[in-house]
Amino acid sequence: MEPNQFLKIESQVSSRVGSYYGLDEAALLTSKEDFNEIFNHFKDSSVYVELGSGHGHGPALFAQAFPHKKAFGIEFELARFKESLRLKSHFFLKNVDFILADLSVCKIPLGDVYFLYFPTGPILDRILKVLGESSHDFQLIAIESHGDLLPRLDREDWLTRQFEIPLRAERHYPNAVIYKKMSLKKVSFDDYSFIEKLFEIQDDDGSVWIGESFGMSWCKENLYNLQFPPRTINQSQILRVLGENDISGFLKELNSHRRKGLISFETDRGSFLGEIRKIFIRPSPFIELSTGVHLLFSEIISLKTP
Q: Closest Cα to residue 62, out of 50, 77, 79?
């Protein structure tokens, strides 16, 4: 691809989470040489599915190499998706389908080989849940881009490493790693990362606060990074998993405001402005603001987005 063409496409990409906006071509896209080398090991595969297909090079190359087989590419950035459609039209490819969709919620096509490059965190957790609970067998190609993908896949006891394929392009890990599905995936703690639940979390001093499951990501061993609030916790700190009906109306209001950024509070002792960090419920209920201020539930008169 011409550099100007790549930059033109990428200039239209959003900066939302998961878009990897601002990466250069070598970092964002897998090279044609590496794709061809990978595909040489999957000549017996019938359906290739790329989850996060970028500009569509992988599915298009597979469709070209194996005209009697099928390829799919799923991408959620419109500019990259349009480039995929251009490739399909330019090369008159009838055996590839590109899908504009969000992998956090969309249906994932059945395939006998799946390709992962960038998915991490909740998106990866959701992909693994869907694939792992599917009854069909498959192989999974993983290229490590920044140090989180392969350790996460290695935690899944329903996947096993089969072999590795050396890559020409420089990557965090020098080889593509091929996994094979060996059994059905069991329900795991990681499944909470893409659903709306609340955790009761206990600190070493015995105090208990509320954290959100949505957006959390595995860190290492039993450690997880929460998004709301931004804290690292050990799974052993979680006392209970709560649903919306398990919390009071005021606690529900506080938690809903936590994602909104700066909040203005009117209290018995004046006005305060800050982001809601920890929401403590025991031994006494209070909130901790990003400014370090602590506000008791009982002294809060009103709260609103400024």
A: 50
Structure token pair of residue 70: 């099928």
How many residues can be counted in the chain?
306
> Averaged over 20-26, what is the pLDDT?
89
Query: What is the overall mean pLDDT for the chain?
Result: 94
Cα dist. 125→51, 192, 197 in Å?
13, 9, 15
Is residue 138 within 8 Å of residue 1, measured between CB atoms? no
What residues make up the domain containing 89?
3-181
pTM of the predicted model over 0.70: yes
Kindly give the residue spans of alpha helices, DSSP state H, lying in 213-248: none
Judge if 164 and 242 occupy the same domain: no
Dihedral sign of CA atoms 31, 37, 40, 42 in order: negative
pLDDT bucket at 54, cuts 50 / 70 / 90: very high
d(CA 28, CA 49): 18
Domain boundary pick from 130, 159, 181: 181
Of 181, 215, 241, the one marking the end of a domain is 181
